[in-house]
């Protein structure tokens, strides 16, 4: 069974080493992605870790203890330690041992394991959420009543003590809303869900039964998460509230729904700082939901959650769900909930909150798999390392405080010339220059003579500039982090990242995602990351790349001088071929 040519070494501390040189590396990597978390990924040995959450998500999408252990054995170089097998069985066995179920419209925590139920019901965090005494049913199931309105809170409390609850309590149907797919669309195109989009809807909906209706769908940017949401909305046929990241995304959602369903304009409402419509399908932003007049006052617009009898609530970019919204979600467990994201990574560590309050991961497709099928663009990732321009700047960096070091490295003046060269090399392409520091972005915008979008740009101006980029009128656009999320620029095929938020893996994924919409003709894209050599920025860059490396992307790392030489050689070969 065990083969020295195999790539996996499972260790007793729950870490798994994966050798990249093995011919079985791609298959083993894809298998591990289903139930393990990537920790680091240098050139030769990648390190994964089995965690309770990674195993619970695996259980929620249909992995069994046997299938996980079988995959480890299939690719293992040496025998898998006994404690790893035991812990896989233990953690995966915890999912579903406790359930939430309704009896005569009263909510109960249930289990066939009477002693487990007694044990968790003694915990200080659980006691206030219970009422009444234990009941033993004739079929051997034991149950205890939950205090009304505490469905989300008990799920949240139980996952914190290591027992994720399987919620089978069902949902309110919400206000009925009839709608169908529109094909051809208003824009005149034939339209139907792709196979994987149908699979995602089916995994979430599960026939409208008790096991469906709450969960998270993980798909790369450009793969059509909005289309999955439309498919879910059609499956549910119910009044729906959609939460998005910003007004640009809100309007893109509204346009997509009107274009691809038979809903009339007066059925789909915008609830924003500009317009406050409450319609059978209402789209709002996290920003307006978390608005309050003072730090200690109530959230002004939380009442929106109760304005209609919503049957479905959709959370776009659920990895960005603001902490205050989790509190509202805990009170919305009787509504069906769909989370959409390109990555479940949260920089605040609240992945367990997404699992318990939105729902477990129900569907996931590796980015490279969709790339191989032509559904998203083929992306080449290149990290270009550059030095500081002179000893004076290098000395300023050397004596700076830690936080200032990142700023100084990220705003290295030499980056301006690199960006100018890269933009010149890609003449004719649609190019996004993306960064964090506004003064740096302004300097590059001036040097290139191209428009810039920041948080201060009025929404009307943003819409105008995005339109000009899409049409090719302005093929180069400088953008701050406001363009990280849910901005639909399908023709962008080159991105130059000049600075970012420390080691944010989610930001790296979202920025690459700006390029992944399928392209006409040559379905390829290039993602450059310009990094100051031998600096904290280089260290953070390695952390940022972790998620994409797990998805199968590889960063080609070059010094700028070498990169220029390669470009000149490539240009020379291209001219020779033309001659």
Percent of sequence in beta strands: 15-25%
Largest sheet report:
7 strands, parallel
CATH topology of the largest domain: Rossmann fold
Terminal CA distance: 56 Å
What is the CATH C-level name of the largest domain? Alpha Beta
Q: How many discrete domains? A: 4
* Structural class by SSE content: alpha/beta
Assembly form of the protein: single chain
What form results from the Cα inertia axes? globular
How many beta-strand runs? Answer: 23
Strand order of the largest sheet: 12-13-11-14-15-10-16
CATH architectural designation of the largest domain: 3-Layer(aba) Sandwich
- The number of helical elements comes to 22
Describe the structure.
- With 579 residues, the chain is α/β, with parallel strands linked by helices.
- It has four domains: 8-94, no CATH class; 99-167, no CATH class; 195-365, P-loop containing nucleotide triphosphate hydrolases (Rossmann fold, 3-Layer(aba) Sandwich); 371-578, P-loop containing nucleotide triphosphate hydrolases (Rossmann fold, 3-Layer(aba) Sandwich).
- The strands form four sheets. It has a seven-stranded parallel β-sheet with strand order 12-13-11-14-15-10-16, with helices on both faces. It has a seven-stranded parallel β-sheet with strand order 19-20-18-21-22-17-23, sandwiched between helices. The chain has a five-stranded mixed β-sheet with strand order 7-8-6-5-9.
- The longest helix has 19 residues, at 560-578.
- The protein is globular.
């Amino acid at each position: 069974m065990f083969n020295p040519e195999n790539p996996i070494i499972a260790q007793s501390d729950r870490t798994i080493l994966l050798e990249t040189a093995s011919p079985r590396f791609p298959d083993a990597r894809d298998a591990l992605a289903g139930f393990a978390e990537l920790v680091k990924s240098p050139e030769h040995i990648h390190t994964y870790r089995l965690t309770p959450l990674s195993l619970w998500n695996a259980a929620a999408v249909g992995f069994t203890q046997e299938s996980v252990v079988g995959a480890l054995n299939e690719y293992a170089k040496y025998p898998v330690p006994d404690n790893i097998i035991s812990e896989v069985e233990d953690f995966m066995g915890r999912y579903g041992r406790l359930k939430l179920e309704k009896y005569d419209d009263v909510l109960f925590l249930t289990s066939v394991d009477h002693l487990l139920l007694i044990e968790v019901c003694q915990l200080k965090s659980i006691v206030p959420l219970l009422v009444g005494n234990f009941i033993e049913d004739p079929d051997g199931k034991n149950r205890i009543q939950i205090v009304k309105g505490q469905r989300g809170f008990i799920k949240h409390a139980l996952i914190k003590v290591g027992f994720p609850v399987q919620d089978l309590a069902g949902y309110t149907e919400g206000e009925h809303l009839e709608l169908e797919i529109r094909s051809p669309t208003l824009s005149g195109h034939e339209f139907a869900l792709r196979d994987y989009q149908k699979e995602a809807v089916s995994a979430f909906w599960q026939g409208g039964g008790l096991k469906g209706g709450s969960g998270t769908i993980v798909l790369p940017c450009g793969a059509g998460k909005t289309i999955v949401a439309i498919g879910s909305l059609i499956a549910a046929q119910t009044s729906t509230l959609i939460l998005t990241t910003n007004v640009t995304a809100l309007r893109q959602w509204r346009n997509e729904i009107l274009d691809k369903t038979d809903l009339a304009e007066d059925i789909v409402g915008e609830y924003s700082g500009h317009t406050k419509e409450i319609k059978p399908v209402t789209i709002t932003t996290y920003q307006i939901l978390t608005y309050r007049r003072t730090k200690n006052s109530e959230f002004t617009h939380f009442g929106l959650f109760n304005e209609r009898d919503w049957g479905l609530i959709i959370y776009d970019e659920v990895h960005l769900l603001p902490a205050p919204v989790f509190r509202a979600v805990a009170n919305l467990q009787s509504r069906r909930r769909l989370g959409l994201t390109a990555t479940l990574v949260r920089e605040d560590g609240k992945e367990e909150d997404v699992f318990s309050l939105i729902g477990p991961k129900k569907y996931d497709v590796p980015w490279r798999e969709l790339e191989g099928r032509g559904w998203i663009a083929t992306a080449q990732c290149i990290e270009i390392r550059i030095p500081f321009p002179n000893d004076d700047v290098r000395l300023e960096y050397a004596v700076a405080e830690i936080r200032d070091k990142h700023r100084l490295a990220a705003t290295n003046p030499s980056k301006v010339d690199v960006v100018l060269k890269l933009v010149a090399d890609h003449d004719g392409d649609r190019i996004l220059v993306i960064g964090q520091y506004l003064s740096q972005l302004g300097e590059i915008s001036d040097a290139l003579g191209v428009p810039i979008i920041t948080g201060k740009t009025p929404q009307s101006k943003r819409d105008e500039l995005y339109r000009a980029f899409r049409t090719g009128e302005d093929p180069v656009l400088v953008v701050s982090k406001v363009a990280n999320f849910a901005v639909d620029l399908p023709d962008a095929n080159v991105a130059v990242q000049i600075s970012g938020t420390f080691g944010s893996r989610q930001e790296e994924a979202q920025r690459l995602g700006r390029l992944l919409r399928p392209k006409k003709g040559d379905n390829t894209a290039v993602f450059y990351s310009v990094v100051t050599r031998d600096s904290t920025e280089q260290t953070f860059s390695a952390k940022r790349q972790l998620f994409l490396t797990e998805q199968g992307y590889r960063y080609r790392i070059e010094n700028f001088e070498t990169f220029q030489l390669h470009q000149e050689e490539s240009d020379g070969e291209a001219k020779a071929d033309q001659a």
